[in-house]
């Protein structure tokens, strides 16, 4: 009985190690952006948000402590009629550069929510989806492959400044590692059954 328990514990530890290894090649790391914008302008009204195009909206970005910049192309994004926080179809080019690495995609904003508490305006929250069209090695290794979609959210203060934002990937385990993990568990179950 003790031997079976030892085998089960060893198999469980092996399974945990293999599960951790399945995420080894892609380590998702959130990209943060925001702070005071360095060029361009943003204005948010009750029915739309305007991001200037000449010059484009630019500001600071970071990933895992490494500093960089972001650029967001100009657009006027309207609320759809009859929906308080739903945005009309739109697309902006969003680029992040950190060191020698860059990430570019088409940002579609889907929601705009005023942040008002006790009749005080704290800004506007935006959410959307970034379709990645270009990604260099550093961003590929941190969960941002080309042709994938990632979530973007940010807030804009009443004065038109970005206060905070993030681009967040989801970790996806490699299919090969999941097959290896599954076959290992089946082999372990067969071994235990044979010994019983």
Please provide a written account of the structure.
The protein contains 3 helices and 11 strands, in the order H-E-E-E-E-E-E-E-E-E-H-E-E-H. With 196 residues, it is α+β, with helices and mostly antiparallel strands. The chain has one domain (30-184). The strands form 2 sheets. The chain has an 8-stranded antiparallel barrel with strand order 1-4-5-7-8-9-10-11. A 3-stranded antiparallel beta sheet has the order 2-3-6, with no helix packed on it. The chain is globular. The termini are close together.
Structure annotation, total helices = 3
Oligomer: single chain
Backbone structural class:
alpha+beta
Q: Strand-and-helix sequence, N→C?
A: HEEEEEEEEEHEEH
- Across the major sheet, the strand order is 1-4-5-7-8-9-10-11
Compute the number of strand runs: 11
| Gap between N and C termini | 10 Å
Counting structural domains, the number is 1
Summarize model confidence as the mean pLDDT: 81
Please summarize the sheet with the most strands: 8 strands, antiparallel, barrel
Principal-axes geometry comes out as globular
Radius of gyration: 23 Å
**Stretches with pLDDT under 50, minimum 5 residues:** 20-25, 172-186
The share of residues in extended strands comes to over 45%
What share of residues is helical? 10-25%
